[in-house]
Design brief:
The structure is a homodimer. By secondary structure, chain A is an alpha/beta fold. The first copy, chain A, has two domains: 10-118 and 280-304, 2-Layer Sandwich (Nucleotidyltransferase, domain 5); 157-272, ATPase, nucleotide binding domain (Nucleotidyltransferase, domain 5, 2-Layer Sandwich), CATH 3.30.420.40. Chain A contains twelve helices and nine strands. In chain A, the strands form two sheets. Chain A has a five-stranded mixed beta sheet. A four-stranded mixed beta sheet of chain A has the order 8-7-6-9, sandwiched between helices. Chain A is globular, with a radius of gyration of 21 Å. The interface between A and B is medium-sized, with 34 and 34 residues.
Chain lengths: 305, 305
């Protein structure tokens, strides 16, 4: 790791979701110097978990870039974190005694939108551990969903995983249709008795449920009617988010998140026709957010001088 | 509290659910000497919470009976607790260093069935914080549901409360129908901004959700279509439990739990026709369970002698 690391400033972009946290370390020309991956960075799951995840991913990216740990204090950081749309969590994270030069905070949905459309007008829908959407058009911002599991986040990984467990238990109890989901789940978790399945999920977090969401799509591909019905209900929710975002008439719509490209084929042709690939990943949106906020704050400093 | 308390033995019956715990203190002739009420007694919520709830309710019943606390060690106790159908929780509660003479443990569903049918064949469905059913016919026992929230317990208080919050947030986000539920909920919790509603329920337990279930029935009575649709889906699940229990052909079916009599009118005429009022409450079932277990253990002691 002794290659030339060039001159700062260095920008770190953080995309922190409910299951994992991705960071990218770039130079002033957006040249990628290093990347890192950590655990959940949603402060609702506890500030220690969130900041540990962020630091794990950050140090990994710095090591990859050959940037010594002492340079932490020189990084200009942008962070888009799930959960900080809630004022109390925004405040909590803002008060973090971070080790960076600067730390600019916003929601993961916001940085996803900035990344997807390079900061221009557009809409974005996240289908990951949670589900939510945002349109930013002519300075008007519309923010839908993302309220959390289990009362919200329909059509998300946590919702699909929970529906999977629900329908497997109905099958096991003899009050729901026989479904391939039962075999797939039991094979995956290595137990098959009802009470063992319940024990496995009794204290499950949204992240744990989300891990099993792909089984629903695997069963649907094999023609399982229960799985198909679950997907249709989940996709209907995502469709509603899209239709609502279209009320602002965004020039384009991008999807982000681990389940996005599994859900898109189940949306209406009208929505599918407006989907455009995201220009860049949310962690780059976080970098650009940091740079824009830094420029603003430097401009206002100059004004004051 | 100086009235004559008679001679022991005294029997204490405990019905411990996810939201509250009821106890009854009786003499050998089932004469009620005292009653008590405590918080949640489901060991899934923590053993300290469960045993505190049990002790609060027990001491209250003893005070009402005029039985000094020193008599705790003379009580013969039967407890039907939610959650102990799971072997690990049965073990945990069994290991409790209880202060009683004897402590006989089974599930709340079992004591509800014993109470409802005086220990004879029959079926019972609980619609309280959770939902489940049990049929006990010719020594064959069929146990359905009760797996916990959010992957199970459809049609229960926690499920109705969660559906309520879900549909209010859909309304607030402009992706669900306008519903009276929004006004009712906002009035009840004293906030109306979306993020404030989310904050209110962010870490809600099943018990908290269950508290708001009656609002769904209140809205339905005023003709709210969203509330009616929620109730129809919840009732369909309870109907499935009933139909499955009927496969054992139980001579009668009783309903127990705070929401039971709200849900029954939405069940099919075929199910409604077989509903009979429970003979006695689950806490009496717990008393009879204790007495039956005590007789068995005394009989086996005699055999050994």
């Amino acid at each position: 790791m002794n290659r030339t690391i060039g001159q700062g400033p260095w920008y770190l972009g953080i995309d922190g979701g409910g299951s994992k946290c991705r960071v990218v370390l770039v130079d002033t020309n957006d040249q990628v110097l290093g990347e890192g991956l950590g655990g959940p960075a949603n402060p609702l799951r506890g500030m220690k978990v969130a900041t540990d995840s962020i630091m794990t991913a950050t140090l990994q990216a710095m090591a990859q870039a050959g940037l010594p740990e002492a340079y932490l204090s020189q990084l200009v950081v942008g962070a888009g974190l799930a959960g900080v749309n809630m004022p109390q969590y925004f405040k909590l994270v803002s008060e973090w005694q971070h080790p960076f030069a600067e730390f600019y905070l916003t929601s993961d949905l916001h940085t996803a939108c900035i990344g997807a459309h390079q900061g221009r007008d557009g809409a974005v829908i996240i289908v990951g551990t949670g589900s939510c959407g945002l349109a930013d058009v002519d300075g008007q911002v519309l923010d839908i969903g993302g309220h959390g599991f289990p009362y919200g986040d329909n059509g998300s990984g946590s919702w699909f995983g929970n529906q999977l467990v629900h329908h497997v238990l109905l099958h096991k109890d003899g009050i729901g249709a026989a479904t391939l989901l039962t075999d797939l789940l039991c094979q995956d978790i290595g137990v098959s008795a009802t009470l063992d399945i319940v024990s496995h999920f009794m204290h499950a977090t949204p992240t744990v449920y989300a891990k099993y969401a792909p089984l629903v799509f695997a069963a649907a591909e094999q023609g399982d009617a229960t799985a198909l019905a679950i997907i249709e209900r989940g996709a209907a929710h995502i469709e509603h988010i899209a239709q609502r975002l279209f009320s602002l008439n965004p020039p384009s719509l991008s999807f982000i998140g681990g389940l996005a490209y599994k859900v898109i084929p189940y949306l209406s042709p009208a929505v599918q026709a407006r989907v455009r690939e995201a220009h860049a990943a949310p962690e780059f949106g976080a970098v650009w957010f940091a740079r824009a906020q830094q420029s603003k704050s430097q401009a206002s400093t100059k004004e004051r001088v």
